[in-house]
Amino acid sequence: MKIFQILRPLLEIGVVVFAIVFGLRFITSFFSQKSKVYRPTFLRQFYLLFWPLLCLGVGLPNLGFYFYTGHLAPHEAVLLLALSAVLLGFSMPALLLHAQYYAHNLHTTLVFDPKENRLEVYEGRVRIPFRQSELVRVERVTCKSKRLFWSNYDFLRLHLQTGEVLTLTSLLLNLAPLTEFLRNTPLEHRQRWFCWT
Description:
Layout: H1 2-29, E1 37-38, H2 42-68, H3 74-105, E2 108-113, E3 118-123, E4 126-128, E5 135-143, E6 155-160, E7 165-169, H4 176-181, E8 187-192
Parallel strand pairs: 5-8
Antiparallel strand pairs: 1-2, 2-3, 3-4, 5-6, 6-7
Helix pairs in contact: 2-3
């Protein structure tokens, strides 16, 4: 029971912090232009991780309750473990994908403005020079199901004439407008159950 006394104030503080961040972001969105520069931002990451983290927040206390309480009946223990396994089974794949996408695009900056026909990719502060005409093909990988927690995770690979391959993940932005922008380049669309790059 001591663990629940510790977790409750932490969860309350977390909810208050997220409410303040979203409130400020909502208010400032009225006064700012839509950005043309995309990086892995807190808001985009929170959007992708909301349901997996919520599921994990429900599943982990159940597992903690199981391990800290030594007097559960066998059928209660089986039900508690089954519920925790289902909840963790839904959240862990999304967390693994998020970690991999974060490692890929942590230092990536994308400048994308379709109205000005502008597409630039930076790794750190170094611009990767290419023109749209130098793209050999574009590979878009999406999730087969639209109802799983990791369905919003997809990626785009830009194959350049030099042989270099640039991977842009959904951690930067929604990739549908970028794919539409590159419609004149040969596009390979693949679907997988798990979009591991």
